[in-house]
Amino acid sequence: MSTGELLDIEPLELKFPFELKKQISCSLQLSNKTDNHVAFKVKTTNPKKYCVRPNTGIVSPRSPCDVIVTMQAQKELPPDMQCKDKFLLQSVKVNDGITAKDINADMFNKELGNVVEECKLRVVYVAPPQPPSPVPEGSEEGSSPRGSVSDNGNINGSEVASVTRSFDEPQDKSLEARVLIKKLTEEKNNAIQQSNKIRQEMELLKRKGNRNQGGISFMIVVIIGLLGIILGYFMKKT
Question: What is the pTM of this model?
C-alpha cells in the first residue's frame, strides 16, 4: 500500500493471472485520506494494451474509489513471464464542486505550480490457478481404498499398491468378459452355420427321394401295361 499525503493506493503491483487470448482484469483501490476532494489520473506506458476505467475521477473526502485495469487478450507468451509495463497515478487537491468532466491536463502540470502527488505501479504476470486434480473417493461401503498420508507427508507404499490393484482388477475382469463374449459369439455363429448346412442336405435328400419314387411308379405302370398286352395277345390266339 502506498501511503501518500492525499491517497492510499492498494496494491502497488498490478497482478494479472496471464492466459493467452483472454482479457484479464485487476482492481486498484484508492482511498482519500484528506478532508478535501482529490482528482486523480492514471497513465500507462502501453495505452493500447490496457484499458483503465475510470482513468480520471474525483475521490470524495475520506472515501474510497475503485479503478479497474483490464489487459487486452494477448496472442503470445511474454519472455520469462516478465512485463516491463508501468502505470503512473497522479493525484491533486481540487475545490469542492469540481466533477470528473472538469478534469484537464493542466491540473496535473507541476510547471503551473500545482502540487501533484505521483505513485508508480508495476505490472506482474502470475500463473493462472490450476484446477484441482480429481481424486477418486470411496463409496459409502468403502469399496475403493484410500491411501493414508504419514506424518512426513509421504503416502504409504502398501496402500498405493492396494489402490493400484483395485484399478487393475476391474480392467482384467473386463478383458476376460470381452474374450468370453467373443468366444460364445463365434460358437453361436458356427452352430447356426452347421444347422443351415444340415437343413439344406435334408431338403436335397428329400427332393431326390421324391424323384426316385416317381420313377418306380412309372416303371410299374409300364410293366403292368406290357403284361396286359402279352396276356391279350395269348388270349386271342386261344
Answer: 0.54
